[in-house]
Write a structure and sequence with these properties.
The chain is an alpha+beta fold. The protein has a domain at 401-574: Porin. 42% of the residues lie in helices and 20% in strands. The chain has helices at residues 2-10, 20-41, 47-58, 83-89, 97-104, 110-123, 131-137, 139-147, 159-163, 168-173, 180-187, 192-212, 218-241, 254-259, 261-271, 314-338, 345-348, 356-363, 385-396, 401-408, 526-529, 538-547, and strands at residues 60-63, 68-71, 273-276, 282-285, 411-418, 427-440, 451-464, 474-488, 494-508, 512-524, 551-559, 565-574. Strands 5-6-7-8-9-10-11-12 form an eight-stranded antiparallel β-barrel. It has a two-stranded antiparallel sheet with strand order 1-2. Strands 3-4 form a two-stranded antiparallel sheet. The longest helix has 25 residues, at 314-338. It starts with a helix and ends with a strand.
Length: 576
């Protein structure tokens, strides 16, 4: 618990959670489109019949000013709680659907205050309320951002592997309210794909029960449909997370929350990632506050006739479409069961998780719209053979991720080298921790000729000896600043130049303590050679990085009242 509290204090300004305003807008747009489809299907009659059914049976009415379907049972004006509001609150401001419902039904709850804060931010063209203000009202918000790993893909694991994390037992257990807290606590450790599948399966099942009881027990039917939509909204939060680039690139752990998850998440949300889905759509995904960020696609068009008629990016449009389809599947389950189809969705789920991928891809269409996880086996899917080779290359790893992580995130580096300027020079060994303070990154995908700059703070501890073979007699405790400049020689390769200036205390046996300054100048050639060592098998990547001089620095140790000592050192970034 101490670790969690320290983590929250380290990142009080912008936590891991997705932006409420994006979830709200995507959720409401998707639900509205699903309602339009339901009305046009005439499954409940004409449009007036549909609106009457939702108002009388579920207490949901269409607000013509807000342009959304408001849920009366959880609404206290001026708040207007609709499907999108539920989606935005799910997982970020509440741990489970029943806790969320209970909070919304209490007029003076923290959650209702948070909704109001978000609405005020929207009035000022903000995508969400300030994280510091939210944290001051609700400590749980910060805690969930740290401990809940399920908003993220599990980077490096294939689509199939992440789907196989689904536990069928969780779906069954959630049929009883008394199991909700335990199951959702366990689900915090899964990935966003598995969590979406789990909760969407519950919503499908509940909708089926609602349809089955429609002519037998209308009160029970209405209640089950209400909870089907509540679970659906919760599920769709994790579905929408898949369209945020920063949620695709992180090895999510509590330890990582302290070290590098936050910065990697933020960097890729801003810089964007080139992604594709099983349907064949390809696009640049941004995230969390930037999901609808323009990519200047108009540069590629020859005529104004080709420009889109709305202001939505491909990323945003696909997130809305996935949400629409997800809601439609809940409606379909209800309609089929109401018409006499009594087949339980739960019973149709295969017994063995090795069969999950085919089953859920066949039944949950939204899975074909989300980005394909990196390192997936694309031969398992129906891609155009002419494009398969290039898609495999794109999907293998995030380009240069192992080089970007130590530039943007808190990271450790191993330092070792020798005093090569004397015949029997001593060795130096140490560990450096650095945290990024500011960077200037050109997120264009045609990066040849561009320059990126990174500034950081460093803390180092090093040991050394005066002559080779002698006992360790020197200890250095340093703090300083670092500067890295990356010059892109092509769109995929760059050479890095490094400059560090450290100062602090040197303790030398039989000499004592002295103030010292240690400037360092270096070069990073691995990204220019196209070597992404962290993405290699560990038994190749680790030795390769240690043995080969990818990052070399020349450093000078200037100590008060002593002769300068010069070293050539290697730097090994510890990235995961």
């Amino acid at each position: 618990m101490k670790l969690l509290f320290i983590t929250i204090l380290l990142f009080p300004i912008a936590l891991f959670a997705g932006k409420y305003g994006e979830h709200r807008e995507i959720g409401n747009r998707g639900f509205n489109l699903a309602m339009q489809k339901l009305i046009s299907s005439h499954a409940f009659g004409d449009s007036l019949d549909v609106l009457k059914f939702f108002q009388e049976n579920l207490g949901i009415f269409y607000d013509t000013i807000a342009k959304k379907y408001v849920i009366n049972s959880v609404t206290f004006p001026p708040n207007l709680i609709a499907y999108g509001e539920l989606t935005g609150l799910s997982g970020d401001h509440s741990t489970d659907p029943l806790s969320l419902e209970e909070s919304l039904r209490y007029e003076f709850s923290k959650v209702n205050k948070i909704v109001r804060m978000h609405d005020k931010a929207k009035e000022d063209f903000g995508v969400a309320a300030d994280d510091v203000d939210l944290f001051n009202i609700d400590f749980t918000y910060g805690l969930l951002a740290v401990v809940d790993e399920s908003h993220f893909y599990d980077y490096g694991r294939s689509f199939d592997e992440q789907i196989m994390d689904v536990d069928k037992n969780h779906i069954q257990l959630l049929e009883l309210p008394k199991n909700v807290e335990r199951v959702f606590s366990e689900l915090e450790k899964t990935n966003s794909i598995a969590k979406y599948i789990t909760l969407h399966s519950v919503a499908i099942d509940f909708a089926g029960y609602a349809g089955y009881y429609f002519y037998k027990d209308i009160g029970r039917s209405n209640k089950m449909l209400h909870y089907a939509l509540l679970y659906s909204a919760f599920a769709d939060h994790y579905l929408q997370d898949a369209f945020a680039a920063g949620h695709l690139a992180v090895h999510r752990t509590i330890f990582g929350a302290v070290i590098d998850n936050k910065q990697i998440h933020d960097f890729y949300n801003e810089a964007g990632l080139q992604v594709f889905n099983l349907r064949g759509d390809e696009w640049i995904s941004f995230g969390d506050g930037r999901m609808d960020q323009g990519t200047k696609d108009w540069r590629e068009h020859d005529t104004y006739d080709d420009l889109p008629s709305d202001n939505l990016t491909i990323n945003y449009r696909l997130a809305i479409e996935a949400t629409k389809i997800s809601v439609e599947e809940v409606f379909t389950s209800y309609i089929k069961a109401r018409s006499g189809d009594e087949i339980s969705f739960f019973e149709s789920i295969p017994k063995y998780n090795s069969e999950y991928q085919k089953f859920f891809l066949d039944n949950f269409e939204a899975l074909s719209i989300i980005p394909v996880p990196y390192n997936s086996n694309l031969d398992d899917y129906d891609f155009d053979p002419l494009e398969l080779s290039s898609l495999k290359k794109q999907n293998k790893v995030i380009p240069n991720r192992s080089h970007m992580v130590p530039r943007v995130a808190n990271a450790f580096a191993l330092i070792y080298g020798w005093n090569v300027f004397t015949s029997n020079g001593g060795m130096k060994l140490g560990l450096r921790f650095h945290t990024n303070k500011w960077y200037s990154y050109d997120n264009l995908y045609h990066k040849k000729g561009s320059i990126d700059q990174w500034f950081e703070y460093n803390l180092s501890f090093l040991i050394s000896n005066t002559e080779r073979g002698e006992k360790i007699d020197t200890y250095q405790y340093l703090a300083g600043i670092g500067y890295k400049l990356d010059w892109w020689v092509s769109s995929s390769r760059f050479v890095g130049m490094l400059l560090f200036i450290d100062m602090g205390l040197q303790h030398k046996t039989e000499v004592g303590d002295n103030f010292m300054v240690s400037p360092k100048l270096g070069i990073d050639v691995a990204p220019m050679l196209g070597i992404d060592y962290a993405e290699l098998p560990w038994w190749i990547g680790v030795p390769l990085n240690i043995l080969l001089p990818f990052q070399l620095t020349i450093q000078a140790d200037y100590v008060w009242n002593q002769e300068p000592v010069y070293y050539i050192t290697r730097v090994v970034d510890l990235v995961y």
